[in-house]
Structure formats: structure tokens, C-alpha cells
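User: Predict the structure for this protein chain, please.
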Amino acid sequence: MWSPLSKLLEFIGAIRFPFLRRRAKLAVGRTDVPDARGTADWKEFLDARALSRVWGPHPHGPWTPFHCLTLFIAIDYLKREFVGPCEADPWPVREFRAPGWIAPDALLVVDLPGPRTVALGAALAASGCDLVCTFNNWPHPQGVLKAEQNLAAMLRYASWLEEKRVAYPTAGPVAWLCDAERLGTRKGRPGEFDNRYYIEDGVLPGPNLLRAQGISKIFYLWSQPGAVRADLGVQLYAYQKDGFQVSQVFVSDDGVLHDPEPVSLPTPSFSTMGFFRSSAGGFGAPVPHPSSGG
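Assistant: Here is the predicted structure, written as C-alpha cells:
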């Protein structure tokens, strides 16, 4: 594993968890279980810098500006005695075999439910893919989304990635890790913490940068029925209109990535209304109770 830290991490210490003045008691995974290597080495990653370093893009590669830090920073504001890895593999990483179409000209957009995306991301990284995380929301005990589940999965594989990861400072292949449940199924209710979010335009690289890095193929990896998530649909549609080959890949529960298939993307529509941005970056804010005033 590389030793230099990305400059992207240099300002982590300057950011403050916007809703807590002290560490929060939030259960993340389990503290009494081993990580994916059967060790307690996950404890070495109870730190934003350490966890982001092992899950972020290579510091000498082109993708560091796109790596989202929000969820990593949050771990510094949680009580460590309640934070640990998830108990089991959310997806069968040990059954994974990298298919031949994962090549230097490929960008993968992994859009599975968060813990599964994390598990597949670990397998991809061990197979030579660089990684970019898009987890851009704050965890909270009353959160609409259980962002802490993604943290627990990242802790499970952190020491395994430290040992196995083989990414090089080259352009591709690279995998953008997305949580398919980021948009949520409902708005936050009064008293809840609405941490739903969407993939913003600047989280994915523009076509000129991709071409400059030799990337011409984009693969959308999914496991749930239905159309491409609306926020990503906008960007994938733009890539397709710009001449990139966009394919979809079904990810099955047995650890197999199926053959890529052409994807037809209708003219997309997505509204950013109703999401709560945080003053510290990322997404997440308490939903206020209706005022009783006139």
C-alpha cells in the first residue's frame, strides 16, 4: 500500500461534524467481531485519515479531486467504543473473479446497496481497480439513511485492502462506489435527520478528462430491478450522447459480474429539490418540527 497521503486529506482536521460538539453514541457494526482477515486490525482505521487513505484513489493518480470525504470525517466524531466492522460479508467477495472487460479503458459505476457496493469495491481494488467513494452524507442516530452501515463495511475490509490492494497511479480501470439507496424512499419526518443525497455533477469526471486518461467505456453495475437511478441517469446519458460506450452489468448474489449489455437511456429528468445540504459539506440536516407560531 502506498504511504504518502493525498493532499485531499490535509484539510480533514479543519472540518467539524456540524451537529455534534462531542463524540456521538452511534452503533456502527459490532465491536466484538473480527474483520475480513479474521483480525482486530480494523481498529487501526478508526480515524478519518487512515480509513480514507485505504479507500480513496491513488494519491498520484488523476481521481483524487472526486473522492468524497464526508462519511470518513464522521468517524472522528463517533464514540469509538460503539464502532466496529460488520459481522459478515455483505456480498461474496471471495467468489469474485475479475472479468476480462475490466480493462484500463474502463470506468465502473458500482450502484448497489451501500454495504454491497463496499464489498464489491474491495474485491475490485484487490483485482487492480482504483477506487473513488461517493458516500456524501453524515450518519446520525435518527438518520433517514443508515450511513453507519457503509462505515461498518469499510472497516471490515480496511486491513484486507491495506494488504491486498494493487492499484497503480494510472488512469484506469477505476470504480466509482455509489450507494444505490442514497435517494431514499421517503422524505425525512420532523425530528429525524434527513441525510438523503444524490450524486452531484462534479462527482463524476467530465468527458474531456476521461478521454485524456484513455477511458472510453463506462459500465453501470447494478443488482436491483428498475431503471438507472435518476441522478446517475443524467450523467450516464450525457456520457452516451458524448460518444462513450455505456453498458450495464448485472451483479448477482453469488459473486458473479454478468456480461455487459447495451443500455438504452431515455432523456433523463432529476430534481435536486428536497435534499438537505450540510453547512460542513455533504448532506444531512435535522428536519424541524412545524412551527406553532402564526
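The beta strands are 106-112, 130-133, 174-179, 193-194, 217-222, 245-250, 261-262, 285-286.
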